[in-house]
Amino acid sequence: xxxxxxxxxxxxxxxxxxxxxxxxxxxxxxxxxxxxxxxxxxxxxxxxxxxxxxxxxxxxxxxxxxxxxxxxxxxxxxxxxxxxxxxxxxxxxxxxxxxxxxxxxxxxxxxxxxxxxxxxxxxxxxxxxxxxxxxxxxxxxxxxxxxxxxxxxxxxxxxxxxxxxxxxxxxxxxxxxxxxxxxxxxxxxxxxxxxxxxxxxxxxxxxxxxxxxxxxxxxxxxxxxxxxxxxxxxxxxxxxxxxxxxxxxxxxxxxxxxxxxxxxxxxxxxxxxxxxxxxxxxxxxxxxxxxxxxxxxxxxxxxxxxxxxxxxxxxxxxxxxxxxxxxx
Length: 328
Description:
This protein has about 325 residues and is α+β, with helices and mostly antiparallel strands. It folds into 2 domains: about 40-235, no CATH class; about 240-315, no CATH class. The protein is built from 11 helices and 6 strands. It has helices spanning about 25-30, 45-60, 85-95, 125-135, 170-185, 190-200, 215-235, 240-255, 265-275, 285-300, 305-315; strands at about 1-5, 10, 105, 145-150, 165, 205-210. It has a 4-stranded mixed sheet with strand order 3-6-4-5, with helices on one face. β1 (about 1-5) and β2 form a beta hairpin. It is globular. It starts with a strand and ends in a 13-residue tail after the last helix.
């Protein structure tokens, strides 16, 4: 029993109800991340204007005329994989849950909504998108994969051409359309533009069942995290690039016995054979190659120094800092 200031007995205080985890999922399920009807993504107005303007240019060209209404290309007609089939999708959806459903097929990139995102309000870096367009998409090639959200198990993608919800990063599809616009405005040949069209009509689509805004939001973020982890593992560190350049120089010197291999020659080989690297982060420049050759002559003669550098590089392998390819 508690006791008041005047000495009278007071009833015991009721214990505060503990917050249960059972109440959290229901509350969080009401959080809406996607744009509401009539709402604009204020953080990306300029980005969306540029992407939609590029898409308008593409659709206005005769080679891409009415492309949004086209079915994905079949293998016998030049497609690279079995095209979308509602029957195939339905068979996979039957009895599937949002945790295990995935249907991969050939799709038409023009079926997606280029302006839609599961994560609005986050500024897209337009300069990075343009750089991707001019590096990875410097010439016609397919997109590796575009992941599409199915809002329900009875969704019919063919009835929503131009409105499919992409949950893979929007920067990639935006860069793709901007690259095609670039080639149209540069008066590239019909052969080049037809190659773009062929790739668009046989884009790898991966359909996943994501019926709620929350599921689409977190899935989209997870896609980015996965790409980031893959990038960190595959991206050449400065130390790795150093060995890459040195080995190339050695093999070039073996082939060109009567000519001294110079830093300029090596830089030219990289520019010629790795166009996606040119003007991008971590590019191999004349100064970088020259530094590599200096390190080989003055530092790598010491096994101890070489092993110390290797150990430092290995320790920083999964860090945002350390011996990154941009460090030289």
